[in-house]
C-alpha cells in the first residue's frame, strides 16, 4: 500500500535515555540536549513546505514536549494518537537497560542494544508493527509524526514496504527527522 508523504520525528533525549533506562510507556522529561534537538527538528521542518500536512504526536510526555518545541511555530493543531506510543516493555519500564540485557548483550548502536526489545515483556514487536501500520492506514493525507524509537522504525518499515522484521536495519538515534516519500527515505540534518 502506498502511503502519503511523511516526516517522522523521534523525541529528543530524555533524562532516562541519558541514564540508560527502559522507558516504554513511562515518562521522563527532555534533557537540555533533548530540547535543543527538538528545536533543531523544528528548524529543519520550517524550511519545508508543509501545506496540507496533518500533525500527530504520541501522547507520552517526551513526545508531546518535543512536538511543542519542534512544531509550535509550524502547526496550528497537533493531534495525539495512542497508536504512536512507544512499545510497552512491561516490568522492564524504568529499569536500567544493563539490568535487562541477556548475558553477553547484543549489538549496540545509537539506540543501545536493540535485541532487548525482542525479549522484553509487555506487548511485543508484532503488536507495535500492527498499530503502526493501522495508524498509517488511517491517514488521509501527508503527515508530520512525533513518536519514539521503536514506533518510528515500525512506521518507516511500513512506509518503505519492508517487513517489520527489518526494523533493526533502519537508522536510529535521538532527535531525528526522516522524510519518507514515494517509497524512499531521507534523514534530514
TrEMBL record:
Presence of keyword Isomerase: yes
Residues of the active site: 11, 86
GO MF term (any one): phosphatase activity
UniProt-listed Gene3D superfamilies: Phosphoglycerate mutase-like (3.40.50.1240)
PROSITE patterns: PG_MUTASE
Keywords: Glycolysis, Isomerase
Residues reported to bind substrate: 10-17, 62
InterPro entries hit by this protein: His_Pase_superF_clade-1, His_PPase_superfam, PG/BPGM_mutase_AS, PGM_Phosphatase
GO cellular component, one term: cytoplasm
Full protein name: Probable phosphoglycerate mutase
Organism: Loktanella atrilutea
